[in-house]
Design a protein that fits this description.
The protein has 11 helices and 11 strands. By secondary structure, it is of the alpha/beta class. The strands form 2 sheets. The protein has a 9-stranded mixed sheet, with helices on both faces. A two-stranded antiparallel sheet has the order 3-4. The longest helix is centred in the last third of the chain and has 14 residues.
C-alpha cells in the first residue's frame, strides 16, 4: 500500500487494504514510524483520523499507532450484517498487511467495545487490550451499569430497531448530538478540551469523516446496543487495561469489568477526557509497556 503524510497531528495516510471478500479498509498511522506497532479502534461515529490526537504522545513513547475505519465508517466499505466479532478477522488482516504478530489493541468508547471483544475472543490476534471508557452491551444484567437515558436507547434498539435507526441517523448527521453533548458537559476537563482550537479541529475532522456514509453510524449503534455481543466478559484471554474518566457515565461498567481480572485506572474528567494530554501520555506509556 502507498503512504502519504498529513500535517494534522503528523498523521500518515495509507492506501486502502483490500480484504479477501473484496471490501476495502481505509488505514492511517501516527507516532514513531519505526516504533512498536499498536492498533487503534476509533469511537463509534468517528473515524481513523481520531488517532491524530495521539500523534505526539505515541511518538514520545516509541509507538507506531495504526488505525482503520471500521466497515461503513469514513473510507471503509460497509459490511452488511456485521457483528462485533467480525472485528477479529479485520484485525487479523491488518496485522498481516503490517507484518506484525499479536500487537496491543487500543480503543475508546465504541472502539473500546471492540477491544473487549478482541481481548476476550482473539488471543491469537492481539497480546493485550487497552480500553478507554467502553460502553456496556445490551444485556439485561450489564446494561443497567449505564445511565438511565442510555438504557432507554438500548431498549429501543432491541425492541424497535428501525425506529432507533431513524432517530440515530437523523440526530447524528453532521455530528449534532455529539456537539450538543459537548456543549452541555458539566465536566471541566471535557469543557477545557473542547475549548482548545487545536483539539477541536482534529476531533471534529475525525467525526465528520466518520459520518460521511449515510446511515452507517446507526448500523454500528444497532450492532452494539441492539443485541448481545456474543463474547464473554467474565474473563479475558489476554491482559486488559481499562481507563475510565471519574465522571464518565459508563465508569461503573469499567469497575464491573475489574472483577474479570482487568486492571483499572481512573483519571479526571468525563467521556472525552481520555484525550487530555496527561491521559494520552499515560495511555501510550501503558501501550508501550504491554
Amino acid at each position: 500500500m502507498g503512504e502519504t503524510s498529513s500535517a494534522a497531528g503528523d498523521l500518515r495516510e495509507r492506501g486502502p487494504l483490500v480484504l479477501p471478500d473484496g471490501r476495502r479498509l481505509a488505514l492511517c498511522e501516527v507516532g514513531d514510524p519505526h516504533g512498536h506497532v499498536a492498533l487503534y479502534l476509533h469511537a463509534t461515529g468517528s473515524s481513523r483520523l481520531e488517532i491524530a490526537l495521539y500523534g505526539e504522545a505515541a511518538a514520545r513513547r516509541g509507538v507506531r499507532l495504526v488505525a482503520w475505519d471500521r466497515p461503513g465508517a469514513g473510507g471503509s466499505d460497509p459490511q452488511p450484517g456485521r457483528s462485533l466479532l467480525d472485528v477479529v478477522a479485520d484485525t487479523a488482516a491488518v496485522c498481516a498487511e503490517l507484518g506484525v504478530d499479536r500487537p496491543v489493541a487500543v480503543g475508546l468508547s465504541g472502539g473500546g467495545c471492540h477491544v473487549l471483544a478482541l481481548a476476550s475472543a482473539a488471543p491469537q490476534v492481539v497480546r493485550a487490550g487497552v480500553a478507554i471508557n467502553p460502553v456496556p452491551p445490551a444485556e439485561d444484567d450489564i446494561m443497567g451499569l449505564g445511565p438511565a437515558g442510555f438504557r432507554m436507547l438500548m431498549k429501543l434498539a432491541r425492541r424497535r430497531p428501525r425506529l432507533f435507526g431513524l432517530i440515530a441517523d437523523r440526530r447524528e448527521r453532521g455530528g449534532r448530538i455529539t456537539r450538543a453533548i459537548s456543549r452541555r458537559s458539566l465536566d471541566p476537563v471535557d469543557v477545557r478540551l473542547m475549548q482548545r482550537p487545536e483539539f477541536a479541529l482534529l476531533f471534529w475532522r475525525a467525526i465528520d469523516e466518520g459520518l460521511r456514509q449515510p446511515g452507517e453510524y446507526a448500523k454500528e449503534c444497532l450492532m452494539l446496543w441492539g443485541r448481545p455481543w456474543g463474547v464473554s466478559l467474565t474473563s479475558f484471554a489476554v491482559p486488559l487495561h481499562l481507563f475510565a474518566g471519574e465522571h464518565d457515565p459508563f465508569a461503573p461498567f469499567c469497575v464491573w469489568l475489574r472483577a474479570a481480572g482487568a486492571e483499572l485506572e481512573v483519571f479526571p474528567g468525563g467521556h472525552l477526557s481520555g484525550f487530555a494530554p496527561a491521559a494520552l501520555d499515560h495511555i501510550m506509556t501503558v501501550v508501550a509497556a504491554s
